Structures are given as structure tokens and as C-alpha cells.
Amino acid sequence: MKQNQLKGWSVIWWLFKLFGLPITLPWLIYHLFDIMQQKRRKATLCGKVVMITGASSGLGEALAHIFYDCGCKVILISRRKEELERVKNALMNTYHTIPTYPPIVVPLDITNINSLHSEVEKVIEIHGKVDILINNAGISYRGEVINTNVDVDIKVMLTNYFAQIALAKAVLPFMIKQQYGHIVCISSLQGKISIPYRSAYAASKHALEAWCDSCRAELADQNIEVTVISPGYVKTSLSLNALTGTGQVYGVMDKTTEGGYSPEYVADCILKAILKREKDVVISEFTPKMAIYLRTLCPSLYFWIIRKRAKKLKKEE
Question: Quick one: which H or E segment has residue 186?
Fold first, then answer.
């Protein structure tokens, strides 16, 4: 019996040496090299000026924590001054970086597009530059196309697209002058594949991703990086604050949102994407990723699946 067991283990070891080692060893070497490289790149973030919109809660707050912990000079932007002050105090009481750069709080409604340039100039006066802009602020939407006021479409597009690119355009001249900069736009899976009852939201994210693709190509010679992050569901208050077709607040925490990724996990993925200078990052489970490929490779099947989903959601209402 023992001899049979020994023979079995020897066969397994032989198979591992034959097939496992040629795969495992290079993977381990690459993984260790990647970890070392990320540590070196992370060290270069110390002292960088990072501007984060939507920083008063959720993913924006998680991003503020992760970049402040790296020793960055963080600029916190949101409409809610009290919440920004709360985040600022939490950062300063949690982390003790050397040197310490107190976060700058900028209460600002980014949809006031005409004021963005002057606000950016105020930040430049404080720190002299903006190295990384993370366009995270946004608003979601729930409703039927036919019953949605055009004003709602306009408001969602203003917040998720026009305000985002306006802020980027206000920052870009300074980045070009310093010959370095990184624009990070937080999109969504719905910026790549639309689903029923999210028309205004998906349209705004589609537009943002298209703008980023053009911007990235045009500014490549200026040493300006542009990264699009497309997460799946993130456990934040996005669905609670979503607009309905009439412009009212949705006020419901969706089950999909409730079961989504933690903001801290997504923030960590974004940090890694910035360190690696990745262009387009999807943070999602397997099935949504496959849906993206299905939309490209077999659109007729994708449209059939989405039509079925729309009927199912309609019955559940």
C-alpha cells in the first residue's frame, strides 16, 4: 500500500517537473519582479499633487486615503465642504507621512464649468502643479428612455461628461507646461456595454471614454498619460443618489450595488493602473468582461440577451 502511494507521489512529482515548473517558475519570477517594480514606482508618488473629484465619500474617499498614504499632496474636491473636512481630518489622524502635506479642501460643484479654470489656478498657486487628476465625481440614473425628461439626460451628461472634460482641459495646459501629467477618468462597465434602464448614464460614460481615447492619442508626445477605469458595481451610494426619469432621486440601494466591490479594493486597482501607466482597465468579474467581447464579436447575440434582460426587469417592477 505504501509503495503504491510512493509511486503515486513520484508520478505527480514527475508530472509537476515536466509541466508545472516551466509554467510556475517564470510566473513566480515575473510576479516578484512586478512587486519590486510597483514598490519603486509607488515611492515616486511621494510629493506628487493628486486632484480627486467626488472625494467626500465612496470611491473618492478611498482614493484620498490610498494616495495620501503614499505621501501625495491631495486636493479634495466635492460640493459638500463638511464631508471634505471630515475626510481631511481622517487622513491626517490616520496616516503620519514624512514629510506631511495637509490635504487641500476645495468645495466645488464641477458642473459650474465656467469657474473650473480659476479654481485650478488657485490650486496651482498653492502647490505649483497638478501631477494626477482623478475624475471620479459622477451621477447615476434609473429610468425608461420613453419616460425620461430630456433635462435629465442633459444633467447626467453635464455631470459625467462635460464637467469631466472641462476640468481636464483646465488642468492640461499646466501639465503640458511641466511636460508630465496623468488624467484618470472613472468610467463604468456601462461605458462599454449599455444595459436597459441606464440609457443616460451609459451614454455619458460612452462619451467620456471616446474623449479619453482621442485625448490620449493627441497628447502622447507631450508625456501626458490618460487612463480609463471601468469598474463593475461598487458598493457606494451611487444608486441611492441616482436620478429617475422625472429628475427625482432614486433613493434605493440596488442589490447589485450592495453586493459590489468595496471602494478600497477598486481604489487599490486604480493605484496599480496608474503605477503601470495602463490605458484602459476593466475591474469586473468574468461574465461582464465576456459581455464586452460578445458585444464586439457577436452583437446579434448580445442584443438578444439584453432584450431578454429588459423584459425580465420590466416584469419585476
Answer: strand 181-186
Secondary structure (3-state) at 278: coil
Q: What is the pLDDT of residue 24?
A: 67
For residues 200 and 141, is the Cβ–Cβ distance under 8 A? yes
Residues classed as catalytic? 201
Task: Classify 140 as helix, strand or coil.
Answer: coil
Beta-carbon contacts of residue 109 (< 8 Å; ≥ 6 apart) = 79
- CA neighbor of 131 nearest in space, from 171, 91, 89, 71: 171
Of the candidates 297, 78, 291, 59, the one whose C-alpha atom is nearest the C-alpha of residue 184 is: 59
Predicted local distance difference test score (pLDDT) of residue 1: 52
Burial of 304 (0-12, 13-18, 19+ CB in 10 A): exposed
Q: Which residue has cell 448614464?
A: 201
What is the chain's length? Answer: 317
Q: How far is CA 170 from CA 4, 41, 122, 180, in A?
A: 73, 27, 12, 15
Q: At residue 311, what are phi and psi to the nearest 5 degrees?
A: -65, -40
DSSP 145: S
CA distance 3 to 6: 5
The predicted structure's pLDDT at residue 101: 86
pTM: 0.86
Q: Chunk the chain into consecutive blocks of 10 residues (it has 317) and report each block's average pLDDT, rounded to whole numbers.
A: 56 60 65 67 87 94 95 94 94 80 93 94 92 95 94 96 97 95 96 93 97 96 95 89 90 85 95 95 92 91 91 71
∠ Cα 14 15 20 (to 5°): 115
Give the integer Cα–Cα distance in Å for 193 and 203.
Answer: 10
